Amino acid sequence: MNLSLVLFTCLILFIERQCLVTAQNNGDDSSSPFRWFKPDNFDIISRKMDQANPNNCETMSEADLRLPPTSLSQIPQYNEIPMRQWFTNRSKLLHLHNLALNRAFFYSYILQRLDHPTRDPQYLPSLMYYYLSSSADISSGPNVINISGVFMDTNTTYANWYELKDINKTLPLFAPLARRLDNWNDEMNFLRIPTNATIEITDLGAGPNNNYTASWYKNNPYIRDREMGIDFIPDRRGTAPSKNQYTTKIQLATISGDPIEKLENTKFYGPNAPGVKETFLPVRFTRPYYDCGGTNRWIVSSVAALTDFMPRYSNITRLRGPRMIGVVVQSMDFYRIDFNPCPPGLGNPNHYLAGIARCKPTTLCVPLPGFGFKRGGYQCVCQPGHRLPYEQNGPFRGVDIEAATEEEYRNNFDCIPVGWREVIPEETGMKNNLERFRRSIGEQTSTLWNRFKDPSVHLLNMILTTFGSFKQNIFPTPPKLDESLLINEISDKPFKTTNLDDQPLDRLVPGYRSVSHLLPLEQNDFNLTYTEDVYEDGFFDNDTYILINKPSNIDSKDQSNNIKKRVRRNVDTPFYTVGVGTVFDADRYFEVQRLIAHVRKVTSQNCHLMTADQLILPGEVSYGVEKQFEMVGRTALRLSHFLSAYYQNNVVGELYGSLKTGFPINRFQLFGEVFANVLSNFDIVSSGIFFDYQMFTDHDGTTWDLFAPYAYKPLLATQAAEAIDMSINAYRDYTEKPWFRTLKSRWASSRQSLERITAKPYIRSDVNGSQLQRYFTFPIYYRVPHYEEGYWTQPYFDCDGLVKDWLITYATPFFGVVGEEKALRFMGVVTASVKLTSLDINQCPQSFYTPNFFKNTARCDFRSTYCKLIPRHYFSSGSYKCECRQGFEYPLNDRTWYFHGEMMEREYQLMLAGKPNRYELLRCRQGVASGLSSSSVVILILVNFIVIYLHSL
Length: 953
Known about the structure:
The chain is of the alpha+beta class. The chain has 3 domains: 78-337 and 624-838, no CATH class; 447-477 and 929-952, no CATH class; 497-556 and 569-623 and 841-922, no CATH class. 22% of the residues lie in helices and 19% in strands. The chain contains 15 helices and 38 strands. Strands 1, 2, 3, 6, 7, 8, 9, 27, 28 and 29 form a 10-stranded mixed sheet that branches. Helix 4 (127-139) packs antiparallel against helix 11 and helix 7 (448-474) runs antiparallel to helix 15 (934-952). The chain crosses the membrane at residues 928-950. Residues 1-23 form the signal peptide.
């Protein structure tokens, strides 16, 4: 029995060993599904990220809690932001950059503006100002900002919220930090549904082991990381280098609206503003790191330094100088940041995750936004000279490639070479006055070619058609597109030659129904570039031909009579349809051209000559602004959330022992907030806070009828900003503006749809920060609007304003507990404006209900191509590309695979002007043309010779 037991045990061990070996072999076998590809850098990072968790992170080394520096690529840099095009996949990182710069500008301005030792300490930001400002950074940016904080250097914080006798008493460390909490298990969340609306605010400078500036502090890459360029505090650079001086001017008004003649000029030192070649940047990004003990997630932080004069209060002036006294930190989840998996190149500098895409050699890799840190965030388009297979609709998706087995990958995801490719001919050495005469029918002699021309061409077409049908039966193409070609009624009226001086152009060119009040369209509004002068320059519609310029080679009446002219054929512009409600509209096309020309013509010099209707554009013109400039809107939303939180929770004069928390918001702080908005974001040209009637009470207890701090950038200024109190008599009617009246009426009766934010503040127990304790009111709540509840205005020209340019403004309300009944009321509006010329336009086909003024004006050949938007081409026509449809191929021999919209627009306008053009040639051809082999060509030639021989008999 013992022997049988031993044999049975050995048998079990042998079977287990064989199973283990088989499993290992299957894991290493490339034929195993989903294991055929080799590990790459993505797998290395994934394994490292999976190792860290809340249970073991405290025992792990610093190197194990940080990823390689190049894990984060295409990082926004201050001196490159105005010169580069930033796409959707970097909009969140750009907001992270700008928000850190925003808070650095504000604290630098306010600390240096209010530096009087006896008068100004009471006006400085209070403890709750720091806390609620960090909370507003998070609540205004869901899915963007997860952590926001200010980390002050050692002994640089002068706490005005403590009743201290010594004015030069400083806090050892002070770091108000807000984190977004996962509140699924919160005691107040009865439904156990995460809402992202719970924020924890704490002072990281209080409690044991709190020295975040020490070298032994493991979780502080935002303090010191030389490899990433983070070395702001302690400031060892002296008082002159790395400090830029900024200038502000404020036009104040009295309580009755009369302007104060003396401007309030302020100069302050703020974040660095480097030139193109300078390397000391105002904002740096950390490498991805694990936030152990905090959010317990892998995050990326932006870091910006704030500046103050130190020592702050000193009678010896020569001892004081600008010094970086702290850093502002804004963080987001690393999993939400897109990366470029395509091979390194000019637009994709080499980084740790470059080249992990699995596009085949016959394809090109194109990154896609919105995937975050996961595979498949790309697509594979065909290389120039190749086309997609018949069964493939659109480029190969990265998610499909990553999920394919080895057999599927080997037999698919390849493009087919294009055999016969066209070359665009170039005419060189042609004379300007060259004329070619068309031969008459009588001049054509009875040659051999005329005898077999028609039968051979007919036979050749029949053979090509048969061959194409035969090939399509072997390789079936997708069903026919559901399209129709709608052609206008062809007019029998001859073309009339008219002069531009006799009749305005806007009555002859079709369209102009919705923008008839704008400036007329002129010939120089089109980019018609052609070197030949013998062609007439003009436009045509169904009934009339308009002569714009007389040909330069026709000077006399006799000479013009000697030249025989051909009557031009009247060919209408076709209307292409792609599905229900999408049709090319020629009328709308001319409306678009007229509107773009009108925007270009109206300037600050002539805007006062325009009517009121000519300074306002239709609302459909700003289609897409809520997505493209979402982060600009969220900058205004952040200020709205902060004002709402402060006015709903601050009690003036509130005192807890030696801790004073009830500080009112004053006008110095409000002007500092709007200054920070315009200085930190290149897209924002103006920003304002507009209080409703008798809603603003200043620090001295005076209630103003109206108050509206408004900041804007002067023309061509980079380190200066100006501001004005819009309650001045010239602008006192802002409460009647459409954006103010719309928001006020919207929230006048009900405020139930406002989001409730829960904040859990923890404060230090004493001045020295011995330990943390809950705030005396715990938790605190405030109600705020969502981004979608804001209001984007229609485009307008700010002729009577201070910017004097075409603008689009985002407005969002803020609310406070006011009055004796302590009810939640509408208090005012926060605005942020951007230039209209920075907006992208979408001319591609869209449904009838889409409120896009530019839709259905793309000049693609919709039978063979489809339209796709090219972002970041701004407010100009032609910002799209025409890519080949399924079953079609790009016919030209060049380095691209699509027809650019600018080329399509130019050729279409040349066609309208009667000039030589290639518009009818800019289309894709059916993919069967590439399958013609050399043997097929030989057969066609032999058939041709047979036909010639038969006709010669």
